[in-house]
């Protein structure tokens, strides 16, 4: 298993919510900071998809055997196809020194929470189910039956995603640039906080602790300032605390 304290970022959201677009922007801007954990699937490749880049394409028999051997962190079945994240895929990214990014569904999130990965959990939410249906139809990759299954799954995912405590951040993707700005500033700011306080414990514990701690008022203020001014703002805040004492 991946060692305690490894940095893992989980993006979860219904198919069509825009996770792939947000991840593309994140990787383009910070190629040295984030690495993608390539999932396994038993479905057939779509046009343009490459094995080992978009997914590790495998057979149902091979994947079931690997899961039985404990080689997967999480797995799920959708539309009769298996999807999952292998221990090896996450370990490879973490050992490179990068934050490992997982793009998984709600069932995967529930399983990952039971591991020692201690992830930062972000839910990507479409503006509405109507918007989501429009996006999915625009892909021209779904039959009417598969489309309805995705919409049914999306309803359940949005209920879980909007439940307080299940995610550290919810991003409504009604505008890609604004959604990316919110995602980037939150993820990068949390890292600035951790670096500033030289925290040695796990990432998830740090986030939960900080958001519930005495510095929460400062966090609420600084989160609106952007990454560029976060460190300076923290220093000002720290000086203010010292002056109070």
TrEMBL record:
Keywords: ATP-binding, Kinase, Nucleotide-binding, Transferase. GO terms for molecular function: ATP binding; GMP kinase activity. The keyword Transferase applies. The keyword Glycoprotein does not apply. GO terms for cellular component: cytosol. It comes from the Eukaryota. Its EC number is 2.7.4.8. Residues 6-188 form the Guanylate kinase-like domain. Belongs to the guanylate kinase family. This is guanylate kinase. It comes from Graphocephala atropunctata.
């Amino acid at each position: 298993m991946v060692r305690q304290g490894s940095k893992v970022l989980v993006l979860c959201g219904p198919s069509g919510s825009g996770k792939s677009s947000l991840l593309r922007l994140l990787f383009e801007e910070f190629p040295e900071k984030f690495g993608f954990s390539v999932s396994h699937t038993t479905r057939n490749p779509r046009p343009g998809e490459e094995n080992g880049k978009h997914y590790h394409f495998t057979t149902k028999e091979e994947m079931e055997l690997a899961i039985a051997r404990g080689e997967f962190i999480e797995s799920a079945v959708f539309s009769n196809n298996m999807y999952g994240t292998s221990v090896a895929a996450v370990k490879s990214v973490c050992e490179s020194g990068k934050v490992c990014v997982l793009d998984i569904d709600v069932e995967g999130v529930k399983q990952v929470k039971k591991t020692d990965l201690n992830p930062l959990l972000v839910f990507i939410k479409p503006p509405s189910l109507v918007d989501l249906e429009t996006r999915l139809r625009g892909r021209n990759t779904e039959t009417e039956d598969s489309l309805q299954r995705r919409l049914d799954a999306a309803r359940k995912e949005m209920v879980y995603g909007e439940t307080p405590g299940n995610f550290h951040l919810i991003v409504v993707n009604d505008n890609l640039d604004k959604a990316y700005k919110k995602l980037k500033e939150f993820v990068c700011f949390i890292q600035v906080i951790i670096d500033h306080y030289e925290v040695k414990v796990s990432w998830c514990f740090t986030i939960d602790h900080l958001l519930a701690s005495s510095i929460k008022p400062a966090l609420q203020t600084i989160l609106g300032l952007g990454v560029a001014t976060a460190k300076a703002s923290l220093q000002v805040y720290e000086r203010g605390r010292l002056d109070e004492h």
